[in-house]
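Per-residue structure
===
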Amino acid sequence: MIKHQEQNAFIITTDDTLRETIPHGTDRFPFAYYPEDIWLFDFHRIDWHWHHELELLTVAEGTARCFIGNDQLTLHAGCGIFINSGILHRFEADSSTFTPNIVFSPALLAPEKSLLYEKYIQPVLTSCAPYQVFDPKHKWQKQLLELLDQIYALWESEEKNELRTVQLLFHAWDLLFTHAARIPASYGTRRLNHRQARLQVMMQYIHDHYPETVTLEEIAAAALVSKSSALHLFQSGIQISPVAYLIQYRLSRAAGMLCTTKKPVSAIAEETGFASTGYFCRKFRQHYQMSPMEYRRRDG
């Protein structure tokens, strides 16, 4: 997960489709290790995002809530998760929650169109469910979690070992391929990317037009769906309504302006699409548990 620091918290960096904008690793070695604490992110959440790369995460300390598609998962210490390519997801925590994780391109294991890719990588990408939870109560999942711990240890050492990393990844992938890739994707799972694409189109419309007066009908029309379908896609995808997401996005843009400009609150409210300063201040306090001026002053 790519993050940057804003004041005393980290935030995740995405484009208008919620895809992470910075590559994980390099072209020569598309792999990255992140020793992260969800609690240190802005508002204690790693917000909605997706990436073409694959992700493997362990909850080393604390408890994490993971949102993927229609599902909300609680991951306790000692458990882990695999998140497939292109899957929209979000993490939250109520206290310090250390979640070391790796994000890597499938091409690290085998180039596309190679025999290895077609026989062992592609089946997981296309036939596996969007995610796979690892619980140490199950033998193969415990083995995979132990392999992840070894990879984390390698990348926490002074001399990183890329060859050993790939060896361990192959071992972990063999377990995942053997036990998870054989599970047929449900009809709902196969449609997940299609629904996600429509959801992201509507999100992008909100991102592009949030300073304006935006209606539910316009949001739905951006993805060529009905208003009821738009409501369902937002609720099943990110558990809020389109209008609630619009307000949250406006508030996030306003929060950024409070931190980076000296514009008065009234001007920021107007520029981010709020009909009145009073309404903006009420919504801001509801969302951030502080007034806009308190937010501006929170780090001095």
Observations:
- Residues 4-8, 185-191 have pLDDT under 50 and may be disordered.
- Residues 242-260 form the longest helix (19 residues).
